[in-house]
Amino acid sequence: MTEARLRTFVALADTGSVREAARRLYVTESAVSASVAALGRDLGVPLVRRVGRGVALTEAGTVYAAYARRVLGLLDQGRAAARGAADPGRGTLRLAAVTTAADQVLPGLLAGFRGRWPGVELALEVGPSRRVWGSLGAHEADLVLAGRPPAGAAATVLARRPNELVVVAAPELAAGFAEAVTPWVMREPGSGTRVTAEAYLAERGVDPPSLVLGSNGAVVAGAAAGLGVALVSRDAVGAELAAGRLVVVDAPGMPLDRPWHAVCGPEPTPTTLLFVRHLLDAPGWTAPEGTPPENR
User: Fold this and answer.
1) Which of 163, 161, 159, 164 shows the shortest CA–CA distance to 262?
2) Topology alike, domains 88-162+259-295 and 164-257
3) What DSSP designation does 236 have?
4) Mean per-residue pLDDT of the chain
5) What was the pLDDT predicted at 293?
6) Strands (DSSP E) along the chain, which ranges?
7) Topology, domain 88-162+259-295
8) Which UniProt keywords apply (predicted)?
9) 174 closest CA partner among 165, 162, 166
10) What is the mean pLDDT of residues 108-132?
């Protein structure tokens, strides 16, 4: 049961295809099949089954894939921790961020950090809330930049920054806004902003028409085009507000205070803490009360 076999199996689980797993790993399809078959023999249970001309995970395979991801994540985290302990400025930092944070908050921070610590190897995953928190739980990310951690997550908040959610619309649509009938443009399922918007509408007891768009940028563009109102971070629409393409709608109960959080697992690596100290030097970022000095 080698690391290579685990990585091959996880690639197959992620892609759902022997061919795509082979492409991802730069190996032959027969090598993927042989590796997964050997792993199944080691475990004593079949991990995949034939479906037409392809394969799918068995129930045992689905269960084992979650463990395999965590094992591989821990191995990567251990390597990063060891390198960072030897020299934090030459370690590895695996970041995961929700789309708005990646677009609006991270670029300047990463540029400044790279200037101070050019020897750090940086990796960034961008996705909806569900995905980035899943990466932290599977030890595939050292630090997450997103909203509040989900309940029950094994997560430590190391820094916060104010973030205001506002309802925006094109000026002509905002002028006639009616919460029960004005259409909304929404993020994709799994987005924290989508969950917040749905909870807000449910709390107001209204169910207006909605149009689901596939990214934060598409939502902002759709709102500016007059497709509907949108709940977005004020950080994401500064240019549109300044240019008059969007205006803030005077919606009941708005704006919402939803701070950005920089969150790690129970044992942050030295290089993670190096980045957090860089965060805390940036305007607006503060350490939560009670944060141990060694984690600042």
Assistant:
1) 159
2) yes
3) G
4) 91
5) 58
6) 48-51, 54-57, 92-97, 121-126, 143-146, 156-161, 164-169, 184-186, 210-212, 230-233, 247-248, 256-257, 260-264
7) D-Maltodextrin-Binding Protein; domain 2 (3.40.190)
8) DNA-binding, Transcription, Transcription regulation
9) 166
10) 93
